[in-house]
Amino acid sequence: MTRVLGPLLPAVPFVAALVGLLLPPAPQRRSTRGRGRVDGGDRARTVAIALGLTGAAGALLVALALLVTVDGPVETSREWVDLGGLSVTLGFRLDPVAALVAVAVAAVALAVQVYSVAYLHRGPDDVDLDVDHRYPPYAAQISLFTAAMLLVVVAGDLIMLLVGWEVMGICSYLLIAHDRRLPEAPAAAMKAFLVTRVGDVGFLLGIALLGVSAGSFRIADVLAHDHPTGTLTAACLLLLAGVAGKSAQFPLHTWLPDAMAGPTPISALIHAATMVAAGIYAVTRLYPLFEQAPVALTVLGVMGAVTLLLGAFAATAQDDLKRVLAWSTVSQIGYLAGALAVGSPPAALFHLLSHAAFKALLFLAAGAVIHAVGSTLMSTMGGLRRGMPVIFWCTVVGLGALAGVPPLSGFWSKDGILAVAEAARHGAGPTPGWVGWLVWLAGLLGVAVTAWYATRLLLRTFLGDPRLPDTHPHDPPALMRWPVLLLAVPAALFGLAGFLPAVTDRLTSGAGPAPLAAGGELNHVGPGLLLPLVLLAVGAGGAWWMWRRDPAADPADHLGPLRPVFARAFRLDDLQHTLVVRPVRALGRLARRGDEVVVDGLVEGTGRATGGLGRGLAALHRAALPRAVAVLLAGVLLLGLAAVLLTGGAA
Amino acid sequence: MTVLLVAVLALPLLGALLTAALPARADRTARAVGTGFAALTLLAALPLAAGDRGWFAYTTESPAIRPWHQVDLPWVPGLDLRFHLGVDGISYPLVVLTALLVLLCCGYTLWRVPDGGPGRLLVALLLVVEVGLLGTFLALDMVLFLVFFEVVLLPMYAMIAGWGGADRRRAARKFALYTLLGSVLLLVGVFTVVTAAGTADLVALTGGTGLSRGTQLAAFTLLALAFAVKSPLWPLHTWLPDAHTQAPTVGSVVLAGVLLKMGTYGLIRVAVGVAPEGARWAAPVLGVLAVAAILVGSLVCLAQDELKRLIAYSSVGHMGFVLLGVATLTATGLQAALIGNIAHGVITGLLFFLAGAVKDRTGTGLLAELSGLRETAPRLAGLLAFAAVASLGLPGLAGFWGEAFAVVAAVQVGGPFWTTLAVLAAVGGALTAAYLLRLLRRVTHGRPTPAVAPLGAALARTELAAWAPLVLLALVIGLAPGLVLGMAGDPVQALVERVTSR
C-alpha cells in the first residue's frame, strides 16, 4: 500500500500541474469585451480551478492515507541512474513525521487553492479592466510547488530531495513575479531565487561530499555510512548554507521580506507555511549526521539565535502588514533552527507544524484585509474590527498563537523549544552548553518582542478609528472566509495535540534516544512556563500601553532612533548589495571588456597583423622597375656568392 | 544494420544533391524534399540502438571500443585507409540528436527562410553539414574522422555568410579561419598518431597501446587544442559569439546544438582514447581552463546586452562544465560530459529557436529594447522562461545532470586542487542562474517596449512543431537520464579503465 502511496503523493499534484501548464495562459484578445459571457479565457480558468483543487485535494487524501497506514519507517527504492558507480535512486523514505508534514503541506495547499479562486478574481468593481489574473499558470504553478514540496518530504535520495528543493525555488520565483501590476515584483522574484541559489551552491557541494563518501545518494546509505569526521563536518556545514538560503536564516534571509511582492495566498503557502520550513525539515531528515558534527550544530544554533532576534526586531518597525508577518516568519524559523541546534528535532517539528497552521492563517487573514482595504500599509488601516468581525477574531487567534498565548498552539510548541534549550544549557544537547544558553536567552527575549509586535499589528489594523474613513471594509466572500476559519482550528488547538500520545509518538519516531527534555513529552506543564508568560505579558502590555496613550500614533514611534534601523533590518540589504551584487556586476563588466579587448583583441590583432604582413609583402612585389631590377641583381649576386662559397668550401 | 549505418550518411547526401538540383521555381518543393530526407535520416538513425549491444565479452584483452554495428571497408588501400564506421553508446545519443536537430531546422525553413538566398540551398547546406556531423560521430578511423570533421566547415561558412545578419561576412570569415586553424592542428595531431602507430583505426588505437610517452604528450596537446577551438574552450572561444550572433536561426541552432559537440566528442573519443597518458598529464590544465570558461562565460553573460550574443556566450560556460567532466577522467565525469553534451544541444537549440523568434518578430535583439514580452506574447515568454530555467540547470530538467555531476566528479577526484575546481564550478552554477534570470527579467517582465507592444500572442504551427520535441526532450531527459546514460555506462567504464590502467 505505502509502496504506491509514497510516489503517488507528489505525482498527483504534478500531473495536475503539467496539464494546467498546457492551458492557454491568458485569454485571447477579443474584439468585444462582453461581461459575463463565457469565453475561452473563462473556460480555461474554470478548468484551471478544477485541476488545482483536484491536485491539492488528491494530495491531501493520499497524505491522510499515509498518516493512517505508516507507523514506522518504510523505505522503497529503485535505481534511477548510475553515474560511474555513483548510484542515484528513485527512493521514497516514509515515516510518521513525513506523513504529518505531508498532511500539513497538502492542507495548506488546498486552503490556498480555494482561497485564490476568490482572491484572484476580477470583481465587478475592479477599475482596471485590463487586469487579467492569468489564472491557469498561477494554479498550475501552485500545484507544481505542492508536488515539489511533497517530493522533498518523502524523498529517500539526496538527489531527489535536491530536485524538489530547486523546483520549489523556481515556483517561488514564478509566483512572486506573478502580479504584473507591481513594478517591484520581478526584482523581488529574482532576488529570492538568486539568494537561495547562492545557498544551494553549498547544498550541492554538501550532497556531493556525502554521496561520494558513501558511494550512493540514497539517504539510508548516507546515514548508515561511516563518514570521516572532517568530511562529515564539512558536508554538514555546506548543507547548512542551503538550509540558510531556503529557510531564510541569517545571512541569507534578505530575500524573504521582498518576496512579499507575491500574491498573498502565495506568501501564505510558500513563504510562511511550507517552503521556508523545508530547510529545517531537511536537517531533521539528516539529523543523525548533524549529531556527529557538533560544529555544524553550533553554527546552526548561532545562526538561529541571530535570525530569531533579527527577525523579531525588524518586525517591530514595519508599516507593511505583510512585511511584519514576513519578518515574524524569519524569526520563528530562527526558533526552529535553535531547537535543532540544542538537539531536539521533535520540538522543532512540533513548532514547524503549529507555525504552518497559524502563519498560513495570519497571511490568509491579512489577504482578506488587503483585499478589503486595497493597500498593505497599516497606516491606512485601523478600526477594521467592526466591518470584518470574522477576520478580526481569526487574526486574534493567529497572533495569539504566534505570540504564545496559552492555550493556543504556538504557546505549547514554543515552550517546548525553550524547555529543550534550558536543558541544553547544562550540556544535555549535542552542542556545548553556551549554545543552549544562547538559544534560551534569545528565545526568551524573542517572546517579549514577538508579543510586542503582534499586539501592535492587532491594534493598528483592527482597533482604534479607521484611518481612511471612505472605505467600507467587509468580511470576504465564502471562498476566502472558509479557508481562514478552518485554519483557525489547528492554529488554536494543535498545541493540545502535544498531550496526545498519537502525535508525540509520531513526532519522536524519527529521532534517536532521549530527544526531548523531559520524559518523552512535547508539552510540559510546570514552573518553566511562568517566565515566558511574564515576558509575554510585558511585551503585549508594553505595546498596549503605548497605544493607549495615543491610539492614532504608531507604537513603533517609541523606538526612536532605532526605528529606521529596525525598519531596514539593520541595513543588511545594503551591505549585501555593496559587498556582493555590485562587485559581481563590476566583475561582469570587467570580464566582458577583458574578453572583447584582450582575448578577442589578440585574435583580431593576429588576423590584422597577418593581413598587414601580406599587404606589405604584396607591396614589395609591386615595386617599380628600377628597384625591382636592383633587387633582382642583388639576389643574383647573393645566390652567386653563396654558390661560390659553398662549392669552394666543398672543394 | 550495416545498411542503416551507411544509409545514415547516404540519405542526407542524396537529399542535399536533390534539393540543390531542383529549379528555383520549385523552391518550396525542394525544401519539402530536403525535410523528407532529413526525416528519413532520423528514421534510419533511431533503430541503430536495436540489435545486439551486449558488453558481455568485455575483458582487459578486448578492445575498449566495441561498436554495436560497424562497417569496415578498404577505402584507399595504397595508404592503408579504411572506411570504418561504427556506433556505440557514446556516439548514439549524439547521432540521434544531430538527426533530430537538422530535421527540425529543415522543417523550420519550410515556414520561414531567412533573407539572403534561396531556401533550398540553405536546406541543402544543412544536409551537407549533417553528413559531416554524422560522419564525425560514426567514424572509427582517424583519417576518416578528420575528413568528416572538415566537411562541416565550408557549408557552415556559407550558411553564415549567405543567410546571416548585418555583419555576416566578417563573422563567417572569422569562424572559418579560426576553426581552420584548429583543423590544421587536428591534421598534424592525427598524422603524428598515425605515423607513430602505423594504423589509423580507433578501435586498435584506443588505450594508447604502442605509443611512447613523448608521442602521446605531443599528440594529446595537438588534438586537445584542435578540439578546444571547436568546443570551444576559453580562451579559444572568440569565434563563437560572432558566428552565433550573425548566423541565421537554423544556423545558430545547428552550431550550438551539435557542431560544438564535435569538439567534446572528439576530445573523449579521439584525444583521451588515443593518448591517455597525455590526457592524464594535461588534465589539471584542462580542468583549470574549463573552470575559467565557466566563470568567465557567466560573468560576460551578466554584462551582455544582446539576446543571441548572450545565449552564445552561455555556451562557453556550459561547455566549460562538459570539459570539466572530461578533465576529471573519471567514469562519473565522462558520463556527466556526455549527458551535458546532449542536454546543452537540446536546450541551447531551443533557446536559439526562441531567440530567433523574438528577433524576427520585434526586429531587435538588444535587451534594452525588449521588455514585457509576457504581456503581449505569453506563450512565447513562457517557453523562453522554460528554456532559460532548463539552461540554468534546474534539477529535474536535462541541464541538471551534466552540471551537477561534473561538480560531483571533481569532488570525487578529491584533493585540494580538484575540490577547489568543484567549488568554483558550483559558484559558476549560481552565476549561470544570475544571468539567465537577468535575461528573463529584461525580456519578459515589465511594461512592453514599442518593439514588443504590437506582437500577437499566436505562435505558428511550424514553430510549435519545431520546438515541442526539444521542450519534451528537456523534460524527459531530466526525468529519465538513463535514456542517455544507460547505454553509455559500459563503454565509458571500458574507456576509463584503459585511461587509468597505467
Automatic annotation (TrEMBL), chain A:
<dbReference type="InterPro" id="IPR001516">
    <property type="entry name" value="Proton_antipo_N"/>
</dbReference>
<feature type="transmembrane region" description="Helical">
    <location>
        <begin position="295"/>
        <end position="317"/>
    </location>
</feature>
<keyword id="KW-0472">Membrane</keyword>
<feature type="transmembrane region" description="Helical">
    <location>
        <begin position="198"/>
        <end position="220"/>
    </location>
</feature>
<dbReference type="Pfam" id="PF00361">
    <property type="entry name" value="Proton_antipo_M"/>
</dbReference>
<keyword id="KW-1133">Transmembrane helix</keyword>
<feature type="domain" description="NADH-Ubiquinone oxidoreductase (complex I) chain 5 N-terminal">
    <location>
        <begin position="80"/>
        <end position="123"/>
    </location>
</feature>
<keyword id="KW-0812">Transmembrane</keyword>
<dbReference type="InterPro" id="IPR018393">
    <property type="entry name" value="NADHpl_OxRdtase_5_subgr"/>
</dbReference>
<feature type="transmembrane region" description="Helical">
    <location>
        <begin position="529"/>
        <end position="547"/>
    </location>
</feature>
<feature type="transmembrane region" description="Helical">
    <location>
        <begin position="324"/>
        <end position="344"/>
    </location>
</feature>
<dbReference type="InterPro" id="IPR003945">
    <property type="entry name" value="NU5C-like"/>
</dbReference>
<feature type="transmembrane region" description="Helical">
    <location>
        <begin position="6"/>
        <end position="26"/>
    </location>
</feature>
<feature type="transmembrane region" description="Helical">
    <location>
        <begin position="356"/>
        <end position="378"/>
    </location>
</feature>
<feature type="transmembrane region" description="Helical">
    <location>
        <begin position="135"/>
        <end position="153"/>
    </location>
</feature>
<dbReference type="Pfam" id="PF00662">
    <property type="entry name" value="Proton_antipo_N"/>
</dbReference>
<feature type="transmembrane region" description="Helical">
    <location>
        <begin position="232"/>
        <end position="252"/>
    </location>
</feature>
<feature type="transmembrane region" description="Helical">
    <location>
        <begin position="479"/>
        <end position="500"/>
    </location>
</feature>
<feature type="transmembrane region" description="Helical">
    <location>
        <begin position="629"/>
        <end position="650"/>
    </location>
</feature>
<dbReference type="GO" id="GO:0016491">
    <property type="term" value="F:oxidoreductase activity"/>
</dbReference>
<keyword id="KW-0560">Oxidoreductase</keyword>
<protein>
    <submittedName>
        <fullName>NADH-quinone oxidoreductase subunit L</fullName>
        <ecNumber>1.6.5.-</ecNumber>
    </submittedName>
</protein>
TrEMBL record, chain B:
<feature type="transmembrane region" description="Helical">
    <location>
        <begin position="217"/>
        <end position="240"/>
    </location>
</feature>
<feature type="transmembrane region" description="Helical">
    <location>
        <begin position="122"/>
        <end position="140"/>
    </location>
</feature>
<feature type="transmembrane region" description="Helical">
    <location>
        <begin position="417"/>
        <end position="437"/>
    </location>
</feature>
<feature type="transmembrane region" description="Helical">
    <location>
        <begin position="379"/>
        <end position="397"/>
    </location>
</feature>
<dbReference type="InterPro" id="IPR010227">
    <property type="entry name" value="NADH_Q_OxRdtase_chainM/4"/>
</dbReference>
<keyword id="KW-1133">Transmembrane helix</keyword>
<dbReference type="InterPro" id="IPR003918">
    <property type="entry name" value="NADH_UbQ_OxRdtase"/>
</dbReference>
<dbReference type="Pfam" id="PF00361">
    <property type="entry name" value="Proton_antipo_M"/>
</dbReference>
<keyword id="KW-0732">Signal</keyword>
<feature type="domain" description="NADH:quinone oxidoreductase/Mrp antiporter transmembrane">
    <location>
        <begin position="139"/>
        <end position="426"/>
    </location>
</feature>
<feature type="transmembrane region" description="Helical">
    <location>
        <begin position="337"/>
        <end position="358"/>
    </location>
</feature>
<feature type="transmembrane region" description="Helical">
    <location>
        <begin position="146"/>
        <end position="163"/>
    </location>
</feature>
<keyword id="KW-0560">Oxidoreductase</keyword>
<feature type="transmembrane region" description="Helical">
    <location>
        <begin position="464"/>
        <end position="488"/>
    </location>
</feature>
<feature type="transmembrane region" description="Helical">
    <location>
        <begin position="90"/>
        <end position="110"/>
    </location>
</feature>
<feature type="transmembrane region" description="Helical">
    <location>
        <begin position="310"/>
        <end position="331"/>
    </location>
</feature>
<protein>
    <submittedName>
        <fullName>NADH-quinone oxidoreductase subunit M</fullName>
        <ecNumber>1.6.5.-</ecNumber>
    </submittedName>
</protein>
<feature type="transmembrane region" description="Helical">
    <location>
        <begin position="281"/>
        <end position="303"/>
    </location>
</feature>
<keyword id="KW-0812">Transmembrane</keyword>
<feature type="transmembrane region" description="Helical">
    <location>
        <begin position="175"/>
        <end position="197"/>
    </location>
</feature>
<dbReference type="GO" id="GO:0016491">
    <property type="term" value="F:oxidoreductase activity"/>
</dbReference>
<dbReference type="InterPro" id="IPR001750">
    <property type="entry name" value="ND/Mrp_TM"/>
</dbReference>
